[in-house]
Amino acid sequence: xxxxxxxxxxxxxxxxxxxxxxxxxxxxxxxxxxxxxxxxxxxxxxxxxxxxxxxxxxxxxxxxxxxxxxxxxxxxxxxxxxxxxxxxxxxxxxxxxxxxxxxxxxxxxxxxxxxxxxxxxxxxxxxxxxxxxxxxxxxxxxxxxxxxxxxxxxxxxxxxxxxxxxxxxxxxxxxxxxxxxxxxxxxxxxxxxxxxxxxxxxxxxxxxxxxxxxxxxxxxxxxxxxxxxxxxxxxxxxxxxxxxxxxxxxxxxxxxxxxxxxxxxxxxxxxxxxxxxxxxxxxxxxxxxxxxxxxxxxxxxxxxxxxxxxxxxxxxxxxxxxxxxxxxxxxxxxxxxxxxxxxxxxxxxxxxxxxxxxxxxxxxxxxxxx
Length: 370
Fold this sequence. Notes:
This protein has about 375 residues and is of the alpha/beta class. The protein is about 40% helix and about 20% strand.
C-alpha cells in the first residue's frame, strides 16, 4: 500500500536476509520509523509490545522469529524454546501459533545446518500467501459493496457508500492490503464513491491512529468518530455496512476481534445494517466451537486505559511523543483486549475463498473438512 506515494509492506528481510525490518506501529501516526529485528527475543518483544500487531502480521513476525532463533542455534531444544517464547507473547490471535507450527513442522525433519534457510523460505511463503489472501478478500468484499450500493434507494444513489469499521484491520495489520480494509481499498480504486467512519478504538486508538493513517495516505475519504457514536449513526441511516477483522474465528462462525466489536454488531443488528467480518483461512480455529466460552481473551496493562500517548504541539518539546494520564490517581483500570461476537450477529464472513454464512456449514462449504 501507499505512504506518500511510495509502496510499502509492513515487514521484510533486510539486505543479506539474516535480519528483519518492521514498521514500528507504536510511533504512528505521528512518526514513521522502521525497526530491525535481529534476534528471536527482539521479535518476541516486538509482538508483545505491539510494535507489530494484527493477527496475520503477528503470525508472519513469529515465523521470521523462528528463523532468527535457528540462525543462532538450530538444535531441537533451541527450536522448542523459541517456539514457546514467541507463542507466549499474544494468546488470542490464532495466526501466531498457526505460523509457528508451520515453520516448526517444515524444519524439524531437516538436519540442523539446513533449518535456518528453510525457516526463512517458509516465513517468506507465509508472507506472500497472506498478501494473496488479503487481495482475494478485497475482491470478494468489493462485489458486496458494489451490490449494496446499487441496491440503495434512488435518493441515496448519488451519496457516498458509508462503511463503519472498528480497530485496524488494514495493511498495517497484515503484510499488505489488510482484511477489513481490503474491500474498501479495492472499492476506492474501482471508483466507488465510498466514505469510512473510523472508530477511534480505545484504549490503544488503533482506529484513530492507524486506520485513519492508512486511509489518509491512500486518499480514501474518512471521518474519525468516538467509539460510542456508531449506534447513533446507524439509527439515523448514516451507515450502509459495517466491516471488521477478526483475530480468531471458531468453526461455527463466532468471531473474536478488538474490544467493542460486539457492541457494534448489536447496534448493526438492531438497525438492520449488514455486519461483515473479513478473514483469511489462517484465522479460523477449527478446534473451537463456542467463542465466548473457549477463546482466551488477552488482558493487557491497565495503563493503556489510564494513560494515552500523544504528540506535543507547542514548546521546546514540540513533536515528541509523551504519555498523558487521563484518570485520577488511585483509580484502577481493566483492559480486556478483545471480545467475541456470536455468529448469529454476523451477516457473512468474507474470506479469501469467497463469502460464507457464519456457521460451520458455511465455512466448510469453502474449506472442506479440516
